Amino acid sequence: MQKPISLKDRLAAWLPQLVLTPSILAVFVGVYLFIAWTAVISFSSSKMLPRYDFVGLEQYIRLWSTPRWITAVENLFLFTVLFLAITIAVGLFMAILLDQKVRAEGVLRAVYLYPMALSFIVTGTAWKWILNPSLGIQKVVNDLGWHSFVFDWITRPEFAIYCVVIAAVWQSTGFAMAIFLAGLRGIDNSIIKAAQIEGASLTRIYLSIIVPMLRPAFLSVIVLLSYISIKSFDLVLALTNAGPGSATEMPSTFMFSATFRRNQMGVGAASAMMMLMTVAAIIIPYLYSELKEDRNGH
Amino acid sequence: MATDLRSARRAQNWGRLFIYGSLAAMAAFYLMPLWVMIVTSLKSLDEIYSGSFIGLPKAVTFDAWAKAWGTACIGTKCEGLKPYFVNSLVMVIPAVILSSGIGAINGYVLTKWRFKGSNIVFGMLLFGCFLPFQAVILPMAQVLGRLGLSGTIPGLVLVHTVYGIAFTTLFFRNYFITIPDELTKAAQIDGAGFFRIFFSIMLPAALPIIVVSCIWQFTQIWNDFLFGVSFTAGDSTPVTVALNNIVNVTMGRKQYNVDMASAMIAAIPTLVVYVVAGRYFVRGLTAGAVKG
């Protein structure tokens, strides 16, 4: 009688780890092993099918001498800077206004946030129609009497990237607003009251007291929006299909077309590794600091 | 003194006007695309080409909706979005249940049954939340092919479950950490085992976070495009891929009303979830930013 019980006990002691094992395995294979696998492909001469030879950095050299990739990297940089700056500015402005004890706050918040629930394909489809110069916004303004008004960015290679910025900002501002609002609600009201008694103006109070206190919220918003912008793929595809020409190519669309359309699997894998390294350089320090604070906090 | 007060009151009124004016203008901007989508989908093609963009339809017609749902052509098939909408449903339901269920039990182990190295495991899982999927789609395509799952809905369910675990585990871990350990310790002393505690103490207490996790996963998986377009083709694509195919048809006169109706059809499930349970949706959104 003694033995089976002890076996059962031993099993019970291992049960938690046992239950967690499939997930650990799935994530280990699906994330870490697959990343290594992509890295291996990026060092091989793979074209249409994976080949497991070793050609060193050849694919990376080819990647960085492809003009399309250079365009993609430049676009990503321009897009990220504008997207972050505008989304943060508008999101913070919204959050501050909403924090002034306004009526119908719940409704307004819902209106600002609903785009986050939509697929980027839906957003892209809608904005493609709105930005269409012959039937969209431009036509509406022309019909109102301003005949010289021109808003044809989506058809012009040097401006199309700004259309992607507009649609992306529309989709993501509510998200920034929600995080800033949560941050504002966490600030002690007595600080503001004290500053007001000292005679500081509301603008002053916000700029020199409140905004600096929102540092953690800023950090979160910056990291998460950067992550959104690096992986933005569906929006570009639906809105401009990386065009006109390759004017709105992004690393994500480059990776996809190199791999699945142009039979350059090695170059595609190399571009995927570049994307991964960029994300890792932003995310790992962020996660590290979040977890460390967490440990100190408890 | 009286004039001071009056000018202060006036400044305050201007301030309120500025606040409400700005908020209303922004609300209009955020609602405009939805408005344009709805009114365009209810117009006839002739009315659209005669230059009606933002106004109400002269004559409301549901033809575009009927066409988008049942007869619009995608590739060589003209069956509308309906079969792809069904694909998305068949994909999203098991994937949401599996990933949320696994996340719940992972969160339980990582908070109430900590072991040496459990923090490292959590850290490793967490990076999965921020993985750029481009870095794994090539190997995933190979593996799906070898498992005989490439181009199938079960293949997509598997992929969404694997990459959903990171987020669902984060949700449940951050929630369960707020439930006092004494509760589980007491249950253990009373003789309750690992699963007994999970099902009769943890899960009933976790209802809000179950809702958050399911809504988050539903929105993410329904809206996914990259996995759908990379791993499926033809009949088995999800609705987002089919929508993109409808919109990118270049033959003939562009049917903007059908495009907009299709976009609305693809958007309705997540919009309904948002309207019904927006509060939980926002919690899911900010969970990536707020530590437990």
From TrEMBL, chain A:
GO biological process, one term: transmembrane transport
SUPFAM superfamilies: MetI-like
InterPro entries, sorted: ABC_transporter_permease, MetI-like, MetI-like_sf
Compartment(s) where it occurs, according to its Swiss-Prot or TrEMBL record: Cell membrane
Residues in ABC transmembrane type-1 domain copies: 73-288
TM helices/strands, residue ranges: 12-40, 76-98, 110-130, 159-184, 205-230, 265-288
Gene3D superfamilies linked to this entry: MetI-like
Pfam families given in the database record: BPD_transp_1 (PF00528)
Membrane topology: Multi-pass membrane protein
UniProt keywords, alphabetically: Cell membrane, Membrane, Transmembrane, Transmembrane helix, Transport
Predominant localisation class: membrane
Gene Ontology, cellular component aspect: plasma membrane
Family the UniProt entry places it in: Belongs to the binding-protein-dependent transport system permease family.
Name of the featured protein: Sugar ABC transporter permease
Species per Swiss-Prot/TrEMBL record: Fuscibacter oryzae
From TrEMBL, chain B:
GO cellular component terms attached to this protein's record: plasma membrane
Keyword Transmembrane: yes
Any GO BP annotation: transmembrane transport
The keyword Transmembrane helix belongs to this UniProt entry's keyword annotation: yes
InterPro entries named in the record: MetI-like (IPR000515), MetI-like_sf (IPR035906)
Key words of the record: Membrane, Transmembrane, Transmembrane helix, Transport
Cellular localization per UniProt: Cell membrane
ABC transmembrane type-1 domain location: 85-277
Membrane-spanning parts: 17-38, 89-109, 121-141, 153-172, 193-218, 260-282
A Pfam family it matches: BPD_transp_1
Membrane topology: Multi-pass membrane protein
Family indicated by similarity: Belongs to the binding-protein-dependent transport system permease family.
Protein name according to UniProt: Carbohydrate ABC transporter permease
Native organism: Fuscibacter oryzae
Lineage of the species this protein comes from: Bacteria, Pseudomonadati, Pseudomonadota, Alphaproteobacteria, Rhodobacterales
